[in-house]
Design goal:
With 315 residues, the protein is mainly alpha-helical. The protein has two domains: 134 residues, Methane Monooxygenase Hydroxylase, Chain G, domain 1 (Up-down Bundle); 129 residues, no CATH class. 65% of the residues lie in helices and 3% in strands. The protein contains twelve helices and two strands. Helix 1 packs antiparallel against helix 2 and helix 8 crosses helix 10. About 9% of the residues have low confidence. InterPro entries: ZW10_C.
Length: 315
Amino acid sequence: RYASEKRRRVLVDVRQSMQKDYMDSVVASLPTSHHRPSSSKKSGQSRTPNDDNDNNNLRVSLCASKLWTQMEALLDEAAHEDVGQGVGMALVHTARDAVSLFRMGMASLVKEALEHDPRVVMLVHNDCLFLTHHMLPAVYRRKAGLPRGVSLIDLVPPLREFGEHVVMHFAKTHTHKMLQSLETSPPWTDVHEDGPFNQAETCLKVVLFQLQRIAQQWKDGGLHAYAAVVGRMLAPLLNHLLTSLLSTPPTLKAVHSVHHLFQLYLDAASDLFETAALAELHDTVVGVQDKWVTGVLVFPESPQRHHALSIVLRK
């Protein structure tokens, strides 16, 4: 009866916390011994948002922080020598169910926010990372007192995958929307005229504002991997701009206007990363001149390519 009542109270508290405390956040620490990069299954595989971090602190929701405190209390009580095996198993199952409730509940409670709010996306991802890193050593530290066969390991993969999916789905969705916006921009051949130029400038500024808004929220997350995701979002945008520039080269009258528009992009991209090292590592704009000249970029060798490069960089 005690374990059943405890279970009811804990799960009710978790549900209420998800509803009330999710937009409040705290800076939390990951357990040092388990704070290391995950190895890729295949060599050369792209790093995911869960695969880093040089920093031991990250921003998590107050809800996740409270959840882990409750889970620790349940595991500590279950491992106490005065607690019977039946009660101990019930307490462990309560801790497991609390994690499952969090994962399934967040997918529905903040479903709409996960589509458009980068801060919520960051918090959900960080919460999943925070909980899984704490869950990994939790049972081992208490194995002497816990009932045999107890484990939390099986809960780790779905929670990590959920957090990663949230970030990558958001990035892909908004990259697609930004590309659609860029596709409505007038051709480069027309931007010497005021009307098309103003339309192209407005379109580009809207896209860059959206990208800066996302990057600014993610800088607060405490994970360098967000810089990698922003870099992935930048790549197709830059590719679209350069491809369209090659397919419809601007006239001499439009050179100044085209340079101005690309300068907007370059200036905005330089502010998307916290440090110069991160920008150099993940920013697809850094080194674009060398990549273009050496043919690393997937554009055919042609006079138009060099002409377009001279327009972009005013060389």
